[in-house]
Structures are given as structure tokens and as C-alpha cells.
Amino acid sequence: MKNKFVKAIFAIVLGSALVTSCKPKNSGDAVSGDAAQKAYVAPGKYDEFYNFVSGGFSGQLSVYGLPSGRLFRVIPVFSVDPEKGWGYSEETKPMLNTSNGFVPWDDLHHTEMSQTNGEVDGRWVFGNANNTPRIARIDLKTFKTAEIIELPNSGGNHSSPFITENTEYVVAGTRFSVPADYSNGDVPINTYKENFKGHISFVKVGKEGEMDLAFQIVTPGINFDLSHAGKGKSHGWFFFSCYNTEQANTLLEVNASQRDKDFIMAVNWKKAEEYIKAGKGKKQSVKYAHNKWNEKTHTATSEIKNEVLVLDSAELKDICYMIPCPKSPHGCDVDPTGEYIVGSGKLAALIPVFSFDKLMGAIKNKQFEGDYSGIPVVKYEAALHGEVQKPGLGPLHTEFDGKGNAYTTFFVSSEVVKWDIKSLKVLDRVPTYYSVGHLCIPGGDSKKPFGKYLIAYNKITKDRYLPTGPELAQSAQIFDISGDKMQLILDFPTIGEPHYAQAAPADLIRNNGQLKFYPIKDNNHPYATKGEKEAKVVREGNKVHVYMTSIRSHFAPDNIEGIKVGDEVYFHVTNLEQDWDVPHGFAIKGADNGELLIMPGETTTLKWLPKKAGMYPMYCTDFCSALHQEMQGYVRVSPVGSSVPLTWSVGTNLPKTTK
């Protein structure tokens, strides 16, 4: 009967989703009033905010302007990108190395901006890799991925990359509990309860952004969805939404929805640090990759590390506590004061709001209702501030405007709802188009939200844009939340699939020492060519190194002969430009990997394997000047064993003249 009841509930929810995704109630087809004016950014004018949006299954991170919705850049992170040569150049390939080898794709769900004293500081953006568990750090001085660290003991990295208020740690919870890497993983799947474990990873962040896997906490075999750190009074704590407390391993849509409540896990990371210092951590043998980009050499390195410190939450009773939360929670959000923790049970028709002060009191007074696999379970009412009644269907994620208001997305009823954090009263609601997932308020998870705009990221866009075959465009919608009522001012398509996003004032980032070009004198790449006179071609057995320069509008050398079938040819291209926004590209016919995009003052390498004799044009792929089309050259490839000498030139190898 229980399974039939659950299936019935899902049928109702699905039916509601189908109805509401066609047209929310009280909705219009277009924005109204002065909306267009509020979203308009005149030609030559700058947007107020940068919006950093996860690319989901694209594995990339995209950058939009607010309020215009204009796409500025797609930053390659976990997936190869031929537009920029990411994962194709020899220098960037190590960035995509893992303990499983070269992995050229992933699923980037969440972005998180660095903070100082709980406020967005504009230094870095972190992104998660859900499939092959990793965390990336993107440097906002270059808008380039600077570091990627793999997470061992994780079956999936969805609950990530959330940070503490001074960016002391980036924290991640495993999505799929699995046997630990340091245990035997060759076990029957239906031994889940005995052999599967979760791990929470604490990645330390240094002053320059460098990451280090400091320690992990092993937990019962549950699934972690989302998380947020405490701030202010709750600094030193982390809160994770947990589901599948039934510890099911098949048909989770039914078997992981049996209980009325799952949990929010509260983690005392300050106490965990004390245990680490006291020697309570156990070193476990694992393998994970740590990849770093060096701006001086323009190259990446990849190091495989072999151990991690692990704390056991069942043995150390005062680092983890469970708070009951309506089943299948998704969002877990902390208000700007650090007092209120909002849980979002996806199948609930209410929103529970927990009090940090009450939680601390409940722990002190041992107001528990038993334990879950050795972790104390706090009584629901003992930690509860209150419940938002009848807010909507399918609450997912909440952010804050800094004025005492919270905004929650509702997937099933396709709307965003505004409510008062203290009184828990609903203040306003607006429809979205359609089935909204996450939302973003600039600075909305910090101590000081900027609170002017709200962006909803939707899963369905039927009837909003021109159709594009079986799959429609991914969608975002901007709302003005500066007044008492929310107002839709723009919707715009995004790269797919947008999940979470964060935003910050444009001036905070663009005036924070953004790099405009790389000084040639500081280029320490081992194959840098700092002037055209230094250009050359060197043979080392069957390896040929081309020391090449590019400048408007030619390569040096641009004629190369004496290459043979079977050679490994490395084009090390240095862009000699010393001006802002003058990159050069490089491509050659027959290259089976990609092209290069070389920033001013940078050196980048393309590996090319000529497979047959012939003439191979090479050219600049990035429009650079009026004579861009003339920026080209030739490579002559001769058969194996050929006696054609290795020669190179620029401007001198002219056709023979006849009298």
C-alpha cells in the first residue's frame, strides 16, 4: 500500500508539473510597464553585474551581463573547448587529468564566488564536476581555470563547491555514496547498507587561491544534495541537505521516498579541525589528481596524490548532527545573519526554517530522538524556527535580499515566492516559464546581498523562443526585486544546462587587477620565442619543434620544409602582441585535435601528426587585422625516408622568376 501511495503522490506531482509548465496561473506572455527600460543597456555602456552561470552537461561556465542578459564569455573548465584550444594544446591537457586518466568532459552544476568576511570579494569562482568528482578554481583576473583538484572517496560531486565565509575551505559532499576508495569496492550492490559510505571533503584554500585536500569526514551511506556554510554567529558550521536515508540502491524515486523526513546534516568543522590537530584523523591510501596552471610558464602540471586524512563521524559524536527535514530536500540555505537555515523538501507543501540558536540549545541540552548510524538526531521541533505555510509546490532553493526577505523557487508550481524570514509570511509570488530550478540574487548567499535583481534558471522553455528541433533553448529570467513586488524584466537563453549561478558588481571584478596581456619579458615558457629573429625549427629524432611567432599579420616562420610522415610536430606559437584584446589563433590542415588561441604575450603548443605526404596550409583562426586573411603559411610534408632538408623561412622563400 505504501508504494501505491507514493506512486499516487508522484502522479499528482507530475500532473501538476505538466499543467503548470504549459502556463502558470495569472501569467501573461510578455513583460509589462517599464520592464524593457530596466533591462536595457545602451550600446557602449557596461552592465551592472557579472553573472557566472554553471553550464551543466556542457562542463563549462558562462559569463553574462546583468541586466542585459548578454553572453560575454564561455570559460572552459572540465570539457575540451576547440574555440579556445582548451584540452587540445599541450599546455592545457594536464588540467583535465584525473586518476582515471584524461577526462575531457564533466557536468558542472554549481558556481561559488570567493568571500572575505562573508562578503563577495571578486577574486575567484569555484565550480564542481559532478561526474568525475572534482573542484575547479577560476581566476577572475584572467577568466581562466587556474586549478582543478579531484576528490577521492566520492561517487559524484553534486553538493559542491560551497565555501566558508573567509574562503578557508571549499566543501563538497558526495552525491552517490559508494564503497570508499580505501576499501573493497567489488561487493554486491544490494549490500549498500553494509558497504556504502558517504564522504564530505574539506579543501583548504590558500591566500593565493591554491587548493589542498585537508581532510574528509566519512558518513553513513546517504546522498548529499546541496549545502551552505554558516556565517556570523554560525561561522564554523556547515549544513548539508541529505536524501535517501532509506539507503536504497534501486528505483530511488519510490524506495528513497518512503520516510516522511530525511535530514539536514549540521557539521561542526571547527571541532573537526581540533580533532585533526589532536591526531584523530586516519591516513587512508587513495589516488587523486591535483592540476595547477602556471601563469608565468603558461603551462599546467598534474600531480597524482596518494593519501587523505579521514575522520569518522560515527566515532566522533560531536562533529555531525542530523536535523529532520521534509523528505527529499534539495536546497539548504543560510540567511545573511547566519541565524536561519532553510530546508527545501522537494515533495513538501511547506518550507521549514531552522534556528541556529535553537539548534545549539538542543545540542547542549541533548534534545535528541535517537541516532542515525551513530550520528545524533536533533528533535525537529527543538531546532525549528517555524514553517512557511502553503508557499507553493516543490520548493527547491532559497536566496536572500539582505532586507529580511527570502526568495524560494518552486519547480512544480513554476514560480518564485518572496517571504519574510522572521514572520514566515508570504509577501509576493511571480510565475516563471517554466519549472524553475535554482535562482540567483547577486551576493544572495553572503552576509551582504546586493539585492537588486533575481535570476531564475528554468528547465523548460516551451513557447518562449523559436523552436530548435526536439530540444529547446535553456532559459534564464531576470526579475527586478528592488520594490515590494517582483517584476519580470527579461528572459534570455543560456548555454545548457544552467543550474546554479552567482553574480557580483561589475566594478568589483573589472577593477580588481584584471590582466590585459602577458608581458613578453615575463614569459618563462620553455619554448617561448620572444622575437621574430629567434624563430626556428629544431629536429630531435622524429620530434620536430617549431619555435614560431605571431604578430599582425604573419607567422614566423611561415614556410617549413623537411617534415616527414610519422614525425611528431610541435608548433610552439608565441603571440608577440603587447596590446589588449589582440589574440591570435593557429590551425593547420589535417590536425585531428583542435586549434590554438594564443593571448598577447603567451606561448601555446599544438601537437600535429602528419599522416601523408603533401602540402598543408596553416593560418590564423582569430580575426586580428585587415590583413587577417593573409596571415597564413605552408608546411611541406615528405614521405618517410625523404632526403628533403629541414628548412624554414619568412619573407624570403619567393617563387623563382623567369626572364
UniProtKB/TrEMBL annotation:
Signal peptide (UniProt feature, chain positions): none
A GO CC term assigned to this protein in UniProt: cell envelope
GO terms assigned for molecular function: copper ion binding; nitrous-oxide reductase activity
EC annotation from Swiss-Prot or TrEMBL: 1.7.2.4
Subcellular location field: Cell envelope
Record flagged with keyword Electron transport: no
Highest taxon of source: Bacteria
Top enzyme category: oxidoreductase
Cited Gene3D superfamilies: Cupredoxins - blue copper proteins, YVTN repeat-like/Quinoprotein amine dehydrogenase
Keyword list, A-Z: Copper, Metal-binding, Oxidoreductase
Keyword Cell cycle: no
NCBIfam families linked: nitrous_NosZ_Gp (TIGR04246)
Name of the protein in its database record: Sec-dependent nitrous-oxide reductase
